[in-house]
Amino acid sequence: MQYAIETSALTKRYGKANAVDNLCLKVPEGSIYGFLGPNGAGKSTTMKMILGLVKPDSGSVKVLGKTISPKNRLEILKQTGSLIESPSYYGHLTGRENMQIIAMLKKVPEKEIAQTLQIVRLESQQHKKVSHYSLGMKQRLGLACAMLGHPKILLLDEPTNGLDPAGIQEMRELIRSLPSKYGMTVLVSSHLLSEMDQMADYAGIIHHGNMIFQGELETLHMHSRHQLLIRTQDNVNALQLLQERKIPCKNKGGSLVLAGLSDERTALLVSALVEAGIGVLRIEEQQMTLEEIFLNLTGKQVSL
Description:
By secondary structure, the chain is an alpha/beta fold. The chain has helices at 43-50, 73-77, 95-106, 111-119, 135-147, 165-182, 193-199, 217-221, 235-244, 263-275, 290-298, and strands at residues 3-14, 17-23, 26-28, 32-36, 58-63, 66-67, 80-83, 153-157, 185-190, 202-207, 210-216, 227-232, 249-252, 255-259, 280-286.
């Protein structure tokens, strides 16, 4: 597998504390990689080290197969775009004027401005002063500036932060389209785990600067425990029947809760209940959410 971004034993200390501790990050090319963790976990520090904005104490960073050094840093980073923390802008200028400044700094042809504004759906607001933009429009302008020059890699730090539900939905759809439409690899950090569940292909979970999970999002969901909830007309006798068959089960909240079973075993269980004269009212399968998996991996004391 080819990696667009790869770090090896990346470490950054502030005082005696490790903000990032021996981090090995692997972002596959053409993917949306969700970089997850609570606030203060080390996500922004990692992204700043990838961009060369913060110097690591040890470890290395590879971008597009090349190890970043002072000699090649600018050349490599020409192929990246970023939106770290909140977008910067000149409020007294229009959206288009802000982008003209960025295009000049990046040495990007001005014709790309109109194309990029269309991608982020700001073409109708481009002549409006940015100080009059909504928060969602400012976020989209920041994303447009990051996308100027069609970079191969985008680093987005909490791009949906502070947006209303409609703005989150719009930003999510926009980010999801980038790999397929424009061939970009996107590293997006967030503490909104539900957002990553709907957006990312791969995920890395960082906690106190340490990577505690990395892999496909489907693999992360395999950490979830399936449960079967069965509601019957006689839970007391149903519980006794299950225990006699040595099926671990408990009566909770008016339902019998047991570990997830195969379809075949579930069918046999229902048949046994019916044959015993116990009516089955409802069967429901429950799976842990991404938030619950996260809390199990990091400890329930974590505040997102």
